[in-house]
């Protein structure tokens, strides 16, 4: 009887040790896997390139592409995603505020690093050089209708000498009401950013973010872009966003390291030209 008890105990102990060993291995594998939500262009394209470098370091990157970007942050807050890559800091700040998250809440998201910048660009099929001389009285200029991107568009128009903004206008809040001088009485038309590229067929000038220009394949009509050293370039750099509890995750840190590497910077330059630029 004692003999059978000893055999049973040994088997039970062996199963326990095997289970512990298996769980440890699974845990190690999980810690080297990261699930990132992203929009297709340029974010998922950049992540696909980073995936190769991460694999060389033993990390597995799973990319989940979203066409409906408002759902990406909630999926990160609830833990469905480990991180996301599609937005700039002002958008993230708005999400946290609108969702009622305060710093310290589990769903509160933070930036783990700035990766690239999509310059606001001026596009036109009709006009090759954008200046007052080449625009007619009352010409339409289409700009984004959301607060942050409209402000960027207006500052770019000011840089080109088409309008002058009030002295207290800021690059994150300026609107049409902040236009002080408009010599050609240009008609500033506000449209949802993702709808602007189609207006290149009927409006002399459109102003839109680089990612939308890429998606619509209109980059050949780019006539001007934001200065890479401008305040907007720093403020609107696209980031990797994570829950604060994930900020020190080794896979997250490795992802950011790879995305900020010289290899990825060179890839961005070769793949997208000046429509997408690596963050400084």
TrEMBL record:
Q: What is this protein called?
A: Lipoprotein
Keywords noted in UniProt: Lipoprotein, Membrane, Palmitate, Signal
Q: What is the lineage of its organism?
A: Bacteria, Bacillati, Bacillota, Erysipelotrichia, Erysipelotrichales
The answer to whether the entry has keyword Transmembrane is no
Q: Which domain of life is it from?
A: Bacteria
Q: Where is the signal peptide?
A: 1-24
Gene Ontology terms: cellular component: membrane
Please tell me where this protein is predominantly located: membrane
């Amino acid at each position: 009887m004692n003999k059978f008890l000893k055999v049973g105990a040994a088997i039970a102990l062996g199963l326990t040790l095997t289970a512990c060993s298996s769980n440890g291995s699974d845990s190690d594998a999980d810690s080297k896997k990261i699930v990132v939500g992203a929009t297709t262009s340029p974010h998922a394209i950049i992540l696909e390139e980073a995936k190769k470098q991460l694999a060389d370091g033993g990390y597995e990157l799973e990319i989940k592409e979203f066409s409906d970007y408002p759902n990406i942050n909630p999926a990160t807050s609830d833990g469905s995603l480990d991180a996301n890559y599609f937005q700039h800091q002002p958008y993230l700040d708005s999400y946290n505020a609108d969702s009622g998250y305060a710093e310290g809440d589990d769903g509160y998201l933070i930036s783990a690093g700035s990766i690239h910048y999509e310059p606001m660009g001026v596009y036109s099929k009709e006009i090759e050089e954008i200046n007052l001389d080449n625009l007619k009285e009352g010409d339409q200029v289409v700009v984004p209708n959301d607060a942050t991107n409209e402000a960027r568009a207006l500052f770019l128009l000011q840089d080109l000498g088409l309008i002058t903004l009030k002295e207290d206008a800021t690059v994150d809040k300026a609107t049409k009401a902040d236009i002080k001088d408009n010599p050609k009485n240009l008609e500033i038309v506000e449209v949802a950013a993702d709808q602007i590229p189609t207006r290149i067929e009927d409006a002399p000038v459109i102003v839109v973010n680089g990612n939308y220009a890429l998606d619509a394949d209109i980059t050949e009509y780019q006539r001007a872009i934001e200065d890479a050293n401008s305040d907007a370039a720093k403020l609107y750099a696209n980031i990797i966003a994570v829950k604060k509890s994930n900020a020190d995750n080794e896979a997250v840190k490795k992802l950011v390291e790879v995305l900020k590497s010289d290899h990825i910077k060179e890839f961005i330059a070769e793949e997208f030209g000046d429509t997408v630029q690596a963050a400084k």
